[in-house]
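Database export, one record per block. Field names are fixed; values are copied verbatim from the stored entry.
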Amino acid sequence: MLFVRLFLISILLFLEVSLFSQVDLYPIEVDGKYGYINSKGETVIPPKYFYAGTFVEGLAEVREHGLYGFIDSTGEYAILPAFDYAYPFLDGVANVHFKGKKCFVDKNGKKLFLDVDGHVSRSGAKDLFIYHKYPKDGIQSVGNKYALINKDGDWLTDTVFRSIKKFNNGLASVTGKNGEFPVRVDGVGDRESGVIDTNGNFIINYGKFLGIDEFQNGVAWATWDEGKGKNAYEVNGLIDSKGRVLFNDEDQDWDTPIFQSGFHDGLLNINIYFDKERDGRETYSAVINKKGKIVLSDENWVQMTSFKHGRAFVQLPSGNWNLIDTKGTILNKDTIQEILFPVIQWKYKNFFLDGIEPVKVNGTWTTIDVNGNLGDKELRKEYTRGKLERRGDFVIIKIESESKAYKLKYGCWNIKTGAVLLPKYDFLYETRPGSHLLYARQGRRTFYLNRNFNSVWQSEDHELIVRKLNIDFMKRAYFYASSPSLKELERWGGWGGSKNGMSKNNSNLPNNGELQILIDTNSKEKIYNKYESNKILLLNNSHDTIYFDAQDSRLYMNFQAKDQDGVWKDIEYIPNSWCGNSYHTLYLPPDYHWSFISPKYEGSFQTKLRVKLVYKRNYNSEDENVLYSNEINGSVNPGQFTVKLPYQNRGIMDPYDE
């Protein structure tokens, strides 16, 4: 769990490379506690934390007991532990959870927006925030409004907006009460889209545009009506920061690619439609300027990247690529077979990073600069593009593993020095952009490698110590079960699957004559192969079949604990699926049971724990019944009552995204 969180934060740091100043310290884990080493592998801050974050803007969030604080590079607390949960600093403030509420904290330890009646989020501009007032009792006109406030809590606007988009270059698009859903009267829409500056003043007033996207490089796509009254019709086009229309898409025979990310170097790549399909293609690539004029086009261009540093790559029908400048001049002397960017990154935030891009020429991966010159640092072993992923100066290599425990083996290529590490690790990534060390894992051991891939620190290879689970966030519910096919329950659903089938009761099991949940604290099993567990029995000793709503074979069953005020609250949550196929029904006949294991928690305060279950007496009934288990003694941390970590789905078969 802790490793996963460190990994996610490191990826976020990578994506925000220009925003963070760095301290050259790296978190390590020794016997379940975290500390820090320097780039030489020397321990600087001894392992004593249950969680240790990455240093950002000179501070790192750590949890020594139940609450988070922030330390400096000497290990001294710059902000004393007070928070249920904490995230890294960004622009001088950090998101935190304080006594169950979300707020921010500055580097002086001052809590920002703690008592605000609504939600406050970052605006994209330093020291400015977006305030969202929620509707009251579901009445739209009473709430659901946005305003702009500064770090000191001063209101720069009133709560008059339906939405405020993130600031870009000092501008943010806003909508009024009907701006997102135009109501047409006699063919004319309510024009309540505009643009404000960082002082909350209107730069583009309401009255013309139906919608305005985020500004990028001084321009934005917008929607407005042409014509008047019943003859009005909607068009889209480009406007500048003064609200002047640069061009519209009326009567255009082109559109913008789905992965384009706006104008770069004053140019935008587009797709022009052929009169008739050619070679299986309906379009070819071209380039327009901010006036909508086509300045470059070639029917042989299958697709192309955005421009950066005055350069773009174009793909030919052969599948090969050329590097061109803004005049369309081909700069590469050798044939480029592949370029190392995945489709998902065709917004090119890391395109031509440091002026070079990994490319494949004559079957060998090398680099090319903005002038079309090839580098001399090659990756001689052949790998397909899908096996490689660029991370700053490094290209991570991923190949299929023969091990059943790990699906992939990881290696690395340093495109600056030419050093190559053949795939051998179970996991490997750059700790943060420009860092001296990479993090690697192999089996139970973790490593830090320098830029030549020599190990400077590695954990001891001792037998795994089984511990209780000490976390600071709500765990996603994990009680999975299955039941045999039943005709009246046959419908789509249950894609998650479960091998946890029901078993016949025996005389050794408790029998109270009803449906019963029993927590057995004497379990010797390990959960996740490393934590102590409780055994949970769900027994049907009644005379009726009991039914259970489920999501992908996950029961509506979770642990609760008493908080510091003695109130029962969930410490595990049931996630929501957007896919209707996820929802189905399970059943448990009389004299049968399901068996589960759950982690034994430990935390900063002692309390009582129990399991909650939602069930039905009839499979087609909408009535829900709640059953509780026996209570057990245990301990938890404050963050387990309120904090839900972000979860990103992994594809169509994982329809959860929170």
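Remark 1: The chain has one helix and 54 strands.
Remark 2: The CA atoms of residues 224 and 330 lie 39 Å apart.
End of record.
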